[in-house]
Amino acid sequence: INNVETMRMKQYLIAIALLTVSAGMMAQSKAGTWALLPKVGVTIANITNNDLRIADTDGILKSKSQAGYQVGLDVQYQCADNLALSLGAFYASLGNRYDDYELLVQAPGEDKQALYDNYTDFHTTLQYVQVPLMAHLYAAPGLAIKAGIQMGVLTHAATEYDVRGFKQDTETGVRIYNETSTAYKDTSKDGYKKMDISIPLGLSYEYMNVVVDARYNWGLTKIHNLTDSKNSFFTFTVGYKFEL
Q1: Rounded CA gap, 170 and 180, in Å?
Q2: I want to staple 82 with a disulfide (CB 3.0 to 4.6 A). Which of 74, 138, 148, 168 is the partner?
């Protein structure tokens, strides 16, 4: 019996030691300290109020989410045991995309042949330098709820798609595609607003100085002079905290 009790006591002590070490690994920085957090991750972005009406038809293409990237650095100050503030600088790729579609170019004549253009890989890419100011409220060791304000400066804008014509027999449905396609790319920033303001809301979890962060960014300002479109995007990043 003594051996059994001794064994149980050792197991309890080991478990307590592991929990203590684990809690220490997950604990946030001490109050009054600074840290640097380089981060890299992905964005899942869309543009609100940006559906596309197809010319000469009643068709409407819904704006859909597009994957991108984000890379940058946070500087964080631990104000108190459960509160920190951070200021960051990130480069991020946002935008949206549309499904492929076909547009009638010439109605069928006596030869029963109709001409179409097939539009593929239709997407817009908007790249920003982003500066988020965030408050981090720690609900548990290592687990933070965060909110703030973010300013973005537009550095690049591009709308791209490919067009490939084809002929379709209206009786048999057989299609004959052109051998080559035409790539269209517009990199003009005319019409786009230089500044973008959003509110980021999210959660992060820290373990052994590795920080996993997930945020939703709610766009406040219009991104174009002629539309009511705004950025709407998620970011998922992984970073490492260097204590200063």
Answers
A1: 23
A2: 138
